[in-house]
Structures are given as structure tokens and as C-alpha cells.
Design brief:
This protein is of the alpha/beta class and 398 residues long. It has a domain of 207 residues: FAD/NAD(P)-binding domain, CATH 3.50.50. It is built from twelve helices and 16 strands. The strands form two sheets. Strands 3, 4, 5, 10, 11, 12, 13, 14 and 15 form a nine-stranded mixed sheet that branches. Strands 1, 2, 6, 7, 8, 9 and 16 form a seven-stranded mixed sheet that branches. The structure holds flavin-adenine dinucleotide. Flavin-adenine dinucleotide (FAD) binds next to helix 1, strand 2, strand 10 and helix 7.
């Protein structure tokens, strides 16, 4: 009988979640194999925006990152016909480079171009992939269509958000001549109905332009409006004329953002989900790289410390995830509020517009929610305003 090579851990997926997880395991001498269906570097649709906490979680300084890195200290945001320039902080990278860098940096043994299909558990409780690889622990880091999540965990509600995006090389001088701010500074169009936003990010000779909406079917009309806006509705605009035809062919990808009930499915019998496979992207902004690296790290640390069962608790009690639970609750409340008003969307007062833009930019730069512990305590009171059918997903302790 053919002997199947056995590892301590197999990770499926080499995006930020898989690589962050692998780096901790490898550093601590855990025998780990990572499988990814892509050959790196690979294209991943993404604006490439990083909030500053990511570097601390990765235990890596931005100075140690050798590839394209754009630091920004201002966001230009448009909302309901008004324009604001707000202090904020973060970084942009190109995912094509970043994911490849993280995978190599983790030093994990990797098989690229390997599409995981079959996952079973053998008589000794080990996980076996396609009858070819075997491990005690299996980590699903395969993104929004992760085969581990699909095979072994309940199907998530299908509330995929929608995106249209393109990153492409343009003419350096032309981009510099028409961008809204400095190189690397994001220009954001927060949609008037607040159900999504669009971005135009100049990264030297690269442009990353796209739209994300909470509901997948709304993304195309929203993108068409955003494109017209960034192109200046026939006037100058912040997209160079020579780059505009490239935007005729956008790419789309849906992914599931955070819901508190997803946390219940983060682990089962020595199998764990991290990143998009679990549906962890920030509930309001859709930021997914931060929760991907965070969950990967927490999962690996639980394994290294010989307490894999504690992954769920580590995730659930982490301040960033606690903030996500609160934001998710706010999202549910807001959805209900606007539904009850029959979708009424009046132009906001000057002060309210500014406040909404300011809060959005604070979230965009990853600022923690002030007084989040107090808010968590107030949750019970707020819950009284939520219909019973939403209460379970709102997040009783899991
Ligand atoms: C248009 C768009 C823009 C975005 N912009 C941002 C942004 O600017 N900032 C941000 O923080 N987040 C952004 N996000 C979200 C972010 O990209 C994701 O949340 C993040 O990539 C999640 O990382 P991950 O490691 O969980 O999954 P992924 O990065 O998706 O990695 C999953 C890996 O699993 C592999 N895989 C999948 N199936 C298999 C299989 N069967 N066998 C083997 N391997 C498999 C894939 O090849 C892939 O390499 C954006 C998303 C979209 C769609």
C-alpha cells in the first residue's frame, strides 16, 4: 500500500490568511505543507489597501517590505456632492507582489498549481487531501470559495458583496497630472445611498480603480456611476484619458463579509477556517486582509501553544473582532432603519455629511471604535430594537 506523506498541518490557500498562519507555524518548528491552486505571483482582485495594524500582526515593519509600498496620510472623499480631505493613515501595496512576498517570507513548504478537491478524515482522525497528503490539523485558507469550508462546514448565507475592479499600468506623468492628491493617496466616492463605495488609487504608474457594494447585484450600476464620476462626467476627471478605454473590461468577484454567526464555524474536529474562508471581512468597509492575517495568526498560535481548541475564543475575544461585532450590529440596525423609512434618502445636512465622511475615513484607516467595551455592554439594550429573527445572527455569545 502506498504511504501517504504525513504533516502536522496542511494549509489550503496561500493568500494573506494562509501565509500569516504558515509563518507562525514554521517559525515554531511545526511541520507544515501549504497547497494553492495558483502559481505565484498571481492576480488577486483587490485595491491593496492596508491599515497600519497589519504590520504589527505580521511582526514585520513596513521598512522590511521590499516591494511597492505607498504610505498615505490623507483621504479625499466625496459624499453627496461634497468633497472632504481628511487626515488618515494607511498603506497601499500591489496584491500581485504582496501575496507572493508573504508566501516566500513564511518559508513554508508549498505546492503551487495544486487544486484541492477531495477532503476526508481517516480512521485515525487525520485529514487526507486527494489521497495524497495527510495531516493532523487542516486549515482552510482558500478564500471565499475555500474547498475546506465547502466540504466540512455549513454553507454560509449567500450575502455576497459585489465588486468591480481593475489594476493596470498607465502613464506616470499623465496620472500625476490628474490624480486628486499625492501619489498613493486614495480618492473615495462614498455612494449617496451609503450601500457601497468606489475608489481611485494612484500608485505611481499603476492605477487601481473599482467599486464595492453591499449587495452583489447593485455593483454594475454603481460602477457605471462611479466611472462617470472619476472620468469627470465629460470634464477633466482623475483618470487619464489614455487609461479610460482599459476600464471597458472590469473584473468582478463576490465575497462574504463579517457576520457574528460566522464565528461559530471557525473550527471543528482539528479543522479550522481563517480569512475569507470564514467570512471575516470588515462588515462596513469590506477590509479583508487585516482579519485574514489576524485569524491566521491566532489559529497558528493556538496550535503552537498546544491548545488548538482555543482558536475560537482567541478570535471571538480579540479587540478587532469585538469591534467587527459592534459594527455588524450597527449595520443591521441601519439596514432596518432605512427599510422602515421605505428607503428614503434625502440629501444630508452639511454637518451630517461631514460626520458620515469622517467616520468612514476613520474606519478606512483602521481606527478602533472609541468606547467599544461600553458599547458591547449596551448591546443588550440595543438588541431590544432588533426583530427576533435577526437576534440569532446578531451574535449571542458563540
Ligand atoms: C475587488 C476587491 C477589492 C478588495 N480590496 C481590498 C483592500 O483594498 N484591502 C483589504 O484589506 N481587503 C480588500 N479586499 C478583500 C481581500 O482581498 C480579501 O478579504 C483577502 O484577500 C482575504 O484573504 P484570504 O487569504 O482569506 O483569501 P485569498 O486572498 O482569496 O486567498 C485564497 C487562496 O486560496 C487559493 N485556493 C482557492 N481554492 C483553492 C483550492 N481548491 N485548492 C488550492 N488553493 C485554493 C487561491 O488560489 C488563493 O491564493 C478586496 C476584495 C475584492 C474582491
Amino acid at each position: 500500500m502506498e504511504v501517504v506523506p504525513t504533516h502536522d498541518v496542511i494549509i489550503v490557500g496561500g493568500g494573506p490568511a494562509g501565509s500569516a498562519c504558515a509563518s507562525i507555524l514554521v517559525k515554531n518548528g511545526v511541520d507544515t505543507l501549504l497547497l494553492d491552486r495558483a502559481n505565484f505571483p498571481r492576480v488577486k482582485l483587490c485595491a491593496g489597501w492596508l491599515t497600519p495594524q497589519i504590520w504589527d500582526i505580521l511582526e514585520l515593519s513596513p521598512k522590511e517590505y521590499p516591494l511597492g509600498l505607498w504610505e498615505w496620510n490623507k483621504t479625499r472623499i466625496h459624499f453627496q456632492g461634497r468633497k472632504y480631505t481628511l487626515a488618515s493613515k494607511g498603506y497601499f501595496i500591489r496584491r500581485y507582489e504582496f501575496d507572493d512576498f508573504l508566501l516566500r517570507w513564511s518559508k513554508v513548504e508549498t505546492i503551487e498549481g495544486y487544486n484541492v478537491r477531495q477532503i476526508e478524515q481517516d480512521g485515525e482522525g487525520y485529514w487526507v487531501i486527494d489521497k495524497r497528503f495527510r495531516a493532523k490539523y487542516l486549515i482552510g485558507a482558500g478564500g471565499s470559495h475555500c474547498p475546506v469550508a465547502r466540504a466540512l462546514f455549513p454553507i454560509k448565507e449567500k450575502s455576497f458583496c459585489g465588486t468591480q475592479e481593475k489594476e493596470f499600468e498607465g502613464n506616470l506623468e499623465e496620472i500625476a497630472a490628474c490624480r486628486a492628491g499625492e501619489d498613493g493617496e486614495p480618492e473615495i466616492l462614498l455612494h449617496d445611498d451609503m450601500k457601497g463605495y468606489s475608489w481611485n488609487i494612484p500608485k505611481s504608474q499603476w492605477l487601481n480603480i473599482g467599486t464595492g457594494t453591499r449587495v452583489a447585484r447593485e455593483v454594475l450600476p454603481a460602477w457605471n456611476k462611479a466611472r462617470a464620476f472619476f472620468e469627470g462626467n465629460g470634464t477633466k476627471g482623475t483618470i487619464p484619458l489614455s487609461s479610460r478605454p482599459i476600464l471597458n473590461s472590469m473584473k468582478g468577484h463576490g465575497y462574504v463579509s463579517f457576520a457574528t454567526k460566522h464565528l461559530t464555524s471557525c473550527q471543528a474536529d482539528n479543522v479550522f477556517l481563517v480569512g475569507d474562508a470564514l467570512g471575516l471581512a470588515q462588515p462596513l468597509t469590506g477590509e479583508g486582509i487585516l482579519p485574514a492575517v489576524l485569524s491566521g495568526k491566532l489559529c497558528a498560535t493556538a496550535i503552537v501553544e498546544g491548545a488548538p481548541i482555543t482558536y475560537r475564543e482567541r478570535l471571538q475575544t480579540h479587540p478587532i473582532i469585538n469591534d467587527y461585532r459592534i459594527l455588524y450590529s450597527i449595520k443591521l440596525l441601519a439596514t432596518r432603519f432605512f427599510k422602515d423609512r421605505g428607503g428614503e434618502r434625502k440629501r444630508k445636512s452639511r454637518l451630517l455629511s461631514w460626520l458620515i465622511a469622517t467616520v468612514f475615513v476613520a474606519l478606512f484607516s483602521g481606527k478602533p471604535i472609541p468606547g467599544s467595551r461600553l458599547l458591547a455592554k449596551m448591546k443588550k439594550a440595543i438588541m431590544m430594537g432588533i426583530p427576533a429573527r435577526h437576534v440569532a445572527e446578531w451574535g449571542k455569545p458563540v
